[in-house]
Amino acid sequence: MSIQYFPFDEQKCTLTYYAADETTATLELDHYQGLDLSEYTENPTWTIVSATRKRYVKNNNWHVDVEFRFLRRANFATFTLVTPLMALAFLNVCVFLVPINSGEKGGFSITIFLSYGIFFTIISDSLPQNSLQISFFVLFIVVLLCLSVVSVFYTVLQAKIVGAVGQKQCPITCFRRKTGNNRVVPIDQNLENGPDGDEGSYTWEDFLGQLDTYLFVSSLFILILTTGIFFALLVRHMATPDERFDIDPEPTTRPTFTVTAAQAK
Fold it and tell me: Is pTM, for the whole model, over 0.70?
């Protein structure tokens, strides 16, 4: 099976008909136009997209191939796999909104990472076993898992910096907000202000708090971009309604089997 576009994948099944121990001179095998699916029962997992036939000669014998294209019904996978995965991805981005001094940021990020691990185990049991192709859905999960690892590493590093030099003056002022304060203050108080004359000192804790906001926006943009690319690759391979064929419940013609006079004797 081709699982590259799971759960919006499409499979092909070809049935080959031929008469053994016959040649083109003794037997002509053909198939009537249109397929009789009056006794076909709808399948809860797959739906028939199209059915075509091809007639050709192989090894001096007539062959008829009937090819069925099946499209997986993706409703079950969408509600049980894709939707929870997107919810976890959004929660992973929300790690950067948790305040530094809350004491819950590290535990929250590690919990999301463990949830990815459990979810990946569930998906690996649902996917068909195929090592020849890599599913885009699995690649999408790996990308989200890597983003979760980055968030956990950043949270641990942030806690270490805040614990070591959190209250010291930070020389990096690119994320510092400009207050534009023009009040007259005493000289001693002005010396305690930041390098731009703003009230209060700009510590490493303040810098990391501002950095969280930028990382949240960046991570949200990466998540939206990755999700858009993922769904664009999968949905564009789904069959459109105009590609579906009309079922012929009562074919007007029947199969043709031409037998020679010698064989009839």
Answer: no
